[in-house]
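Students often ask why inverse folding is considered easier than folding. One informal answer: many sequences map to the same fold, so there is more than one right answer. In these notes we will look at a single instance of the problem. The structure comes first.
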């Protein structure tokens, strides 16, 4: 059985973001005037500038807040319950919302370090998720 979850509406403004996920190298808009990263893509920065560059991000951050979903919106998601939806503040400052995988919902905490992972749900669509950050490898 294929992917049965929600599929985003991908507009021309959002296309570069989704293309970067497909390449497993997330990029966000970065304002050319103030340097602020922003998500969700928009035509205008808070500083008023319309100029931006799609810029690679590290994909690391920490949980700002979260909720554990026990009663999902559709049967496709109910099969995953309980699951976590979290606001994650990226190291670059932007905040993204997604599910957290690879972690028992009861073990999640505000401030937990997480990293972005890629989920190729169809041949043409890659979604992002977060998982607890892997411990850095120690030098040999």
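Output (designed amino acids):
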């Amino acid at each position: 059985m294929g992917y049965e979850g929600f599929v985003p509406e991908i507009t021309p403004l959002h296309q570069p973001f989704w293309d970067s996920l497909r390449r497993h190298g997330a990029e966000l808009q970065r304002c050319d005037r103030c340097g602020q990263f922003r998500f969700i893509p928009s035509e205008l920065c808070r500083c008023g500038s319309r100029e931006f560059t799609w810029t690679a991000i590290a994909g690391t951050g920490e949980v700002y807040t979260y909720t554990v979903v026990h009663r999902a919106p559709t049967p496709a998601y109910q099969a995953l319950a309980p699951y976590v939806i979290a606001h994650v503040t990226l190291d670059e400052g932007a905040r993204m919302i997604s599910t957290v995988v690879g972690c028992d919902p009861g073990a999640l905490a505000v401030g937990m370090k997480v990293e972005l992972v890629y989920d190729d749900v169809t041949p043409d669509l890659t979604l992002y998720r977060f998982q607890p950050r892997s411990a850095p490898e120690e030098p040999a």
